[in-house]
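Entry
Fold in token form

___
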Amino acid sequence: MSTSYAEISTILMDKVADWLNESALAGNDLETLVNGFCERLAAAGLPLKRVHLSFSMLHPLYDALGFTWVRGQGMEVEGFRKEAGVPSERFLTSPYYHLLSNKLDHLRRRLDPSVLSEFPVFDDLRL
């Protein structure tokens, strides 16, 4: 298989973008959109292993919604809520919280299996 990145970007990515636009305009739910988008990107040749998308929302039970897609395993949807205004342990031990609390623009870490994880989510990324 000698498909170059430029060919993937031009030919196949346009099809993925068209599908995403059509599906969103048709009113498909977010789980269908995210799962279909990731599956199509992977089929187009992008070496995706894991994709995570999360966002805050105005909902009586949940503060945020997260979608995690893993190649070969499909989609997991998770609602995040905090009790009485207290952030979850998962959030407090996340790289995102570290960025916010230290006023950093970016964070870069190697996912070396021989090094103890700074953030628990990194253990999931090593799989």
